[in-house]
Amino acid sequence: MSKITTELLLERAVPRSTRLRKIETLNLSKLQLKTGDLDPRLFSRLRHLQKLDLSDNLLDKFPNSLTLPDLRVLNCNNNKLEDVTALKQFPLLEELTYENNVYLTLNDDYKVMFLLQNLRLLNGKDITKLANHVRCVNSRKLTSKVTAHWEKFFRDQLPEKYTAEQVKSIKKKFLQSVQTNVVYGPSSLSEFTRWRVKMIAEEFLAYSLGLELNTDPEPEEKTEENEEESAESPSEAAEDVGQVGDLSSYIKNVTVASSKRKRNHSKSGSGNKRSKSQANTEEEAEDVSAEPLHFLQCHSKGNSREDFKTQLWSCVFEPLLDCGARKDPIVSSSRTVATCGGESVCLIDCETGTVLKKYKVATEEFFSVAWTTLTMVISDSQKKSHNILAAAGRRGIVKLIHVAADFCYGEIKAHKKPIATVCFSPTQETHLFTASYDKRIALWDIGIPDCDYNFKASQLLVLEVLSIPLRIALVPPCPEQYLLAGCESGCFAWNIKLDKDQKSRHFEAIFQFPDEDGSMTTSHRVDGLAFLNDDVVVSKSSKPGCIYLWSWSRSFDTKGKGCQRTVSAVILAELEWSMTDLSYLTLSTCPAKEYVFCGDEKGGVWMYHLSNYTTAWSSAKGKRSDKRIPPTQILKWPELRANGEQLTEIFINNVVSDPTFTYLVVLTSVNITAIWKKS
């Protein structure tokens, strides 16, 4: 039953009233109201309401049909609002306040200035001049850019006589392209710009092609950037810890040889380096038909476009999350990836290439990022799931970022030396492992922040390592019991079960592998480690030009009970790989599609599709593959040019696919993030 009744409205009227239609001022603050409590049928009777106070409630959005035709003043302070576009239903609104709504940003201020033509005061400030600029100058500039983008890239794609399907297809491509490429104003307003560009583009198509205009689209997902209060230069706006900085989505001064981005009419045989990737193996039985979508330069030191030295190290796709009111047909969690390198962490939409958010710490060099989903209490009786991003690096500090709120809400001083890698437990949402150059792996409970972002982190366990841990992986069938680590001096396993008394533990097993001479060794750097499925481990590199696949269960079972001991890895197969002796080119897996990925020292991405082998490996007596397995395909790095000069010596530090292998994100040694899409 709704908390709002006719009697309550009459009682909370100022002054009290006997009839709803006579109420001009209404105070509904501090009633713990939720969006569902605002009954449009009841509010439609408030025909003469001019002032409404909804502050200090739990509203996350406004219903679209409250029907308050005479509303002039609205107070929404201290709520949980996520979107402001529904406020356009109050066209006479002159004064609006919505301070202390953590999900609203500067982008939302600009949206209401555009939507509400009569708005004079926003959060107590006179915005008359700025609003006029937004409605007139900003709109005129964006309209010009949208029109130019159509003329340059899309007009020739539409034949003189076109079908409805052709129009539908060109509309979809144009809307995606124009939102990605049309840039105007400070980077802190990129989300507002994208919102307006989409609106202008739809109006343009409706006018030019006679398409039906969607006049009431769903509110877009907030891809806001926690902007500064003033329009600073990108370099100034990026300095604050946890704040979002420059969103230079594309490498403006880098070109791909022999083609232009997003051109669809290149002739075959023209040497187009952005066409379908070529197989570079002896067996060309399978071609995954991956195409490069974007090359981004978004981790530059000091936002410099001349920075081709910053190393990019880690990327992880955001977990799926029900976005509710923030659902957006353009941007979804499944294609959003977090990347890190240098002083920044970026969130990128893989389809559009848009850098959605950017976090910078001027004194940091980030090495690793990891996601978890926390169920947070946002009121006394309401819980909501939010994705939290952990980022760590050279300073030994873990930054905790509430992405939806664009807020770095805390940090954990985890180690006194750099943190090489981090990962969350798949079964305990608050359990975070940090592996450090201090030769320790620590398990932390990061806690769950309250509505004021107060949290308490505690250290649960410390694993002693003989050398620096480089990669860590929880064993899929028992992630609360065993952890594997690839280290500078070998591959180790620990029992991490928390029911044991000791808080500091030594390894239980060290695995030995064949070396170049064929003899078994434990002393080698393992800089790549991942599980292909519940049992098959993929690791490198005890032998040049080789990636090993081995059985966790059959290897560890040979240890038996008792003290720690050396065990031989039960090798299932070897994968052909580059003969380079360069370290820290790590590997990854896509278990759902049974793929292994690893980059090389020449910009190539080696892909291995192993579905034909895994069934045989799963048997208790599965035999080792006799020959090295060649890559299914090698994606060749295109010829990129910066300021007219070709980029050389491109090392692929990391390659990660999303769980469905739709997108492949490639991190390089030259400050370029490449995004490929599987056709």
Structural commentary:
The chain is α+β, with helices and mostly antiparallel strands and 679 residues long. It has 2 domains: 198 residues, Leucine-rich repeat, LRR (right-handed beta-alpha superhelix) (Alpha-Beta Horseshoe); 375 residues, YVTN repeat-like/Quinoprotein amine dehydrogenase (Methylamine Dehydrogenase, Chain H, 7 Propeller), CATH 2.130.10.10. It has 9 helices and 40 strands. The strands form 9 sheets. The protein has a 6-stranded mixed β-sheet, with no helix packed on it. The longest helix is centred in the N-terminal third of the chain and has 26 residues. The two termini are 50 Å apart.
Give a quick summary of the entry:
The protein is an alpha+beta fold. The protein has nine helices and 40 strands.
CATH hierarchy, class of the largest domain? Mainly Beta
Q: Uncertain runs with pLDDT below 50, 5 residues or more?
A: 215-285, 323-333
Head-to-tail CA distance between termini: 50 Å
Structural class, judged by helices and strands?
Answer: alpha+beta
Radius of gyration: 28 Å
Strand order of the largest sheet: 1-2-3-4-5-6
Please summarize the sheet with the most strands. 6 strands, mixed
Overall body shape: globular
CATH architecture of the largest domain: 7 Propeller
Mean pLDDT: 83
Give the CATH superfamily of the largest domain: YVTN repeat-like/Quinoprotein amine dehydrogenase
**How many DSSP helices?**
9
Q: Percent of residues in beta strands?
A: 25-35%
CATH topology of the largest domain: Methylamine Dehydrogenase, Chain H
Protein name: Leucine-rich repeat and WD repeat-containing protein 1
Domain Leucine-rich repeat and WD repeat-containing protein 1 LRR: 7-200
Biased composition (Acidic residues): 215-231
Keywords: Centromere, Chromatin regulator, Chromosome, Cytoplasm, Cytoskeleton, DNA replication, Kinetochore, Leucine-rich repeat, Nucleus, Repeat, Telomere, WD repeat
